[in-house]
Structures are given as C-alpha cells and as structure tokens.
Amino acid sequence: MIIAERKPIDEIKGFVEGKTKVLLVGCRGCVTVCNAGGTKEVGILASLLRLDAQKEGRDLTVDEFTLERQCDPEYVDELAELVEKKYDAILSMACSVGPQFLSRRYPKEKFYPSLNTCFIGGALAHGIWAEHCQACGNCIIHKFGGMCPITRCSKSLMNGPCGGSSEGVCEISKEVECIWHLITTKVMEEDRLEDFAPIQPIKDWSTSRDGGPRKIVREELVK
Amino acid sequence: MSEDFEPKIIAFCCQYCAYSAADMAGSMRLQYPSNVEIILIPCTGRFDVILALKAFEAGADGVYVAGCLEGNCHFLDGNIRAKKRVAYLQKQIEQVGLEPGRLAMYNLSASQGPRFAEIVNEFSATIIHLGPSPMKKKLAA
C-alpha cells in the first residue's frame, strides 16, 4: 500500500489561515490502513484545527467527510453535493493522488494536501511501516530470494553486498538492514549460492519513470 | 488567575482499577474536588485520542486517563497503549497552544481509594495552577 504521514500541524495551520469554513476529506484506502488519513485521522485533525481556532478566538468551521477512495472518479463524484456548500479550502487527507483527482473534478475549489506521501510499503508491526517497492515497473524479486534490492538496498545494487555492509546493517544507518546480507544469507541456507555466480546485468530502467509519467491502458476494461 | 476558578476535569477511568478505586474513595468518605467528571471505560486501552480532543473542544480544562498499575492490566497491555496515546496527544495539543500538562495518565489499583482522591487533588491543583483552558477563555471573551 501507499504509506503516508500527516504534514506538520503548523504547515496545515498555514493552509487554513484566514479561512472560516474548511472541509477535511479522508480516504478509506491505503491511508486508512496506515493510520494517516482515514475517518479517525480526519476527526483528530479537524479537532486540532478547531481547538487552534478557538484558542485564537477565530471563527472556523471544519467539516469532515471520508470517501471510499480518492483515486477513483466514481467516488470523487460523491463529494459534489458537499462541495456546493462553498468551502474556503478543502484539505485532502489522501496520498497525493487524492488532491489531484479532487482538483481535476472540482476545478473551482482550492485543495490542499494534508499528508506527505512517503513510499510503497508494508507494516512490519502495528505502527511501523517500511518501504518495499519503488514501482520500477519490472519486478525481479524472484532472482533475489523474494527481496527487492532495487528498493531495499540504499544503492539499488544488482550485485551486492557492497563494502558498506557490516554485521547485517547498511553503512548509512544502523537502523537500515543490509538487504544484500539477507539475500546472501538466505541463498547460502538454501545452498544455491551458485545462482549468484553470474553477474546480474545492469537494470533496464525504461519501465521506470525514465520515460516520464506512466500510464496503463487495458482496452478490455475501457468503456 | 481568578480565585474562584473551578476547573472542569474529565477522567477516563478503567473499570478494573481507577473506577473501582473511585468507588472505594466514596465508601471511605474521602474528600476530593467535585469538579471531576468520571467516564467509565472498559480498559484504558479503549481510550482514544479523539475522546480527549472532544472533551477539550467542549470546554474541559483538563483530562486524565487512569488505568491499572503497569504490568497489571486486565487486558495485558491496555494501560501501556493508553500511556503512549497520552504522550502522543500531549505533543499534538501543545502544537495548537494547549499546555501538555492539561492531559495526564495515572496508574493505580482497585484497592487504592486514597490514591484516587490524591490523584484528583493533585491534578486539580495542576489545572488550577494552569488556569482556565485558553480555548474557553477566548470563547467567553
């Protein structure tokens, strides 16, 4: 899923400065699962913004609504009735796709992103998320013991580990595990180290962002 | 700060310890400030940050969560989870201008009626020292 986190409250306060009526829009997709922008987080941010306004004696109405997803037009349409209430600002609590879709559907409204979209990852434990994919467009994890060196090696090495690997951790931080250490340990345990004898060729990045923004068209699904 | 300031305090009390301790304090005829409104929760693990935020929005001057002694939670680690939520929310409310001291976490057992009264006195004194919630002051102005 896409992992995101809420922007610092001061930055969000800047978005609503001088406004009297704002709408917070959450998303029940990835950002609900990573506890960044679901119904609950919308409620918390709305409450914090109201408290901030109360403290300064400012009049601020903060309405809350959570869409099923902000990255699908049919769900974005559901906001039409609410948008008619004329908000001074609409804050999206989805990944960056959300406010972009909302802006396109409701061009007259002013949208702001309340989250920073961080990475594609998974939950290592409740409350801990780690990056596992960088959407290079050509998955090759089967060659590396089911682990992605493109994402999880700091240098995206195809032939590792490098000299910066020490006691299973990467030289950039003791918090970062060396994925090449894990890959080689796993293949040694499986007694198939010879699979790693051939040098892996340079990765073909043409499926990644090198060709600009990507798009998939599935003709059998297009109406 | 006004001499006659009576803080409005909301206490989220676990039914297995703090709530029972409040009962005991009552049975023992212990005196404690009457401006604390106790809300029964099944475990402090049920405490959610939004509950405290709603209390502050509604004009509470202070909010505290009272759960079992660490290691004695009926649901194993509800009180530890609550402690982390309280710490998180203290940082959040500070960023919108509310003193973090207006939110607190206490631990006590069901048999500590006198400790319950002591906590109410202690927290009330803290809130009286801090004065009325800055949110409330502006609303009244």
Structural class determined from secondary elements of chain A: alpha/beta
Q: What is the CA–CA distance across the termini of chain B?
A: 15 Å
- Portion of residues in helices of chain B? 40-55%
CATH H-level name of the largest domain in chain A... which superfamily?
A: Response regulator
Supply the helix-strand structural class of chain B.
alpha/beta
**Rg of chain B:** 15 Å
Nearest-integer average pLDDT of chain A: 95
**What's the N-to-C terminus distance of chain A?**
27 Å
* Fraction in helix of chain A: 25-40%
Shape of chain A: elongated
* Total DSSP E strands of chain B: 4
Tell me the Rg of chain A in angstroms.
22 Å
Main sheet of chain A, how many strands, which sense, barrel?
A: 4 strands, parallel
**Which sequence of strands runs across the widest sheet of chain A?**
3-2-4-5
| Most extensive chain interface and residues per partner | A-B, 16 and 18 residues
H and E string of chain B:
EHEHEHEHH
What fraction strand of chain B? Answer: 15-25%
